[in-house]
Write a structure and sequence with these properties.
Strand order of the largest sheet: 1-3-2
Helix content: 55-70%
Number of helices: 6
Structural class: mainly alpha
CATH topology: Arc Repressor Mutant, subunit A
Radius of gyration: 17 Å
Distance between the termini: 41 Å
Number of strands: 3
Shape: globular
């Protein structure tokens, strides 16, 4: 008798399927150079004033080093720029360029489309239970 896959495996497979769907949606929207990991910037950056790298990393729950690599990549592609922080001369703000604002909007729409499809596939109740369970599992211990 085959053993059931463990929870970690199931979550990884679901994440990969959703990431592939998001990649496809971004490509269809005219952004073939973006990948799901870039959403960590686009979904967490302050669209008006920009964000410090450390704040982006904290919001996305990734390391500063990881966020710096992602920001560097997006900056080299023209989606972001770094600017001095008026409140702290030692810090830089990561800001969206015009191209970045358009990409961020499409990224938000693509994420919403993936979530809408998942809700339709699972049904409202199962979708809400899944979200609640994932929030509970991902909550930091105090």
């Amino acid at each position: 008798m085959a053993t059931q896959p463990d929870l970690g495996r199931l979550l990884l497979e679901a994440q990969r399927a959703l990431a592939a769907e998001l990649s496809f949606a971004l490509e269809e929207r005219g952004y073939p150079d973006l990948r799901p990991g870039h959403a960590a910037v686009f979904l967490h950056i302050d669209r008006r004033s920009g964000s410090r790298l450390s704040d982006l990393a904290a919001r996305a729950r990734v390391t500063k080093q990881s966020m710096m690599l992602t920001v560097d990549e997006l900056e080299s592609r023209g989606y972001l720029k770094r600017a001095p922080d008026r409140d702290d001369a030692r810090a830089k703000l990561v800001r969206l360029t015009t191209r970045g604002r358009a990409a961020a909007a499409e990224c938000r729409r693509a994420v919403q489309a993936v979530e809408t499809r998942a809700r339709r596939q699972l049904g409202d109740r199962a979708y809400a239970q899944l979200r609640d369970g994932l929030v509970e599992l991902g909550a930091e211990e105090e």
